Amino acid sequence: MIERVRAVLVTADDTMLAIRRTRPGIPEYWVLPGGGVEPGDESREAALHREIHEEIAGRADIIRLLHTMETGEERQLFYLARIATWSFDDRTGPEFSAEGRGEYALEEVPLTLEGLDGIDLKPEEIAHVLRGAIGAGSLGAEASP
Fold first, then answer.
1. DSSP state, residue 38
2. Which of 23, 101, 102, 115 is deepest in the core (most CB within 10 A)?
């Protein structure tokens, strides 16, 4: 089974970092930073740290596993994490230089229902999970330092 790890990266301003994807012929959408777990990764959390470093040159404190989603032969694990520093200009992931992959833009999205409603976050299941967590007030307090 293919495993992917992604993070809801909460900033000091209670926004979350999301990547806006623009690809030819497809309406723009947003994804959370992360990617595939590789054979050399010591753990899922180590894979997530590596992906965050590659994609946004950032360092995050992982708080907890937020949600697991399985579809066919793929499992995605979504973690709640706090992030203090990042630099999209210093990203190193191989996907950024691949031909035909479209554009990647890092954005801070308000961690509110209105903020989520303003973007097309994929997969829809994690957007639904986040709406529920925001409504229950279970993201801000847990992610506070």
1. P
2. 115
- What is the distance between the alpha carbons of residues 121 and 138, in angstroms, rounded to a whole number? 19
3-state SS, 3-35, equals EEEEEEEECCCCEEEEEEEEECCEEEEEECCEE
Q: What is the pLDDT along the chain (145 residues), one digit of tens a residue?
A: 999 999 999 999 999 999 999 988 899 999 999 999 999 999 999 999 999 998 899 999 999 999 999 999 999 999 999 998 998 778 766 555 555 667 888 999 999 999 999 999 999 999 999 999 999 988 754 444 4
| Closest-CA residue to 63 (of 43, 83, 36) | 83
**Of residues 126, 6, 135, the one with CA closest to residue 60:** 6
Cα-based distances in Å from 138 to 2, 123, 129, 135, 143: 29, 20, 11, 8, 9
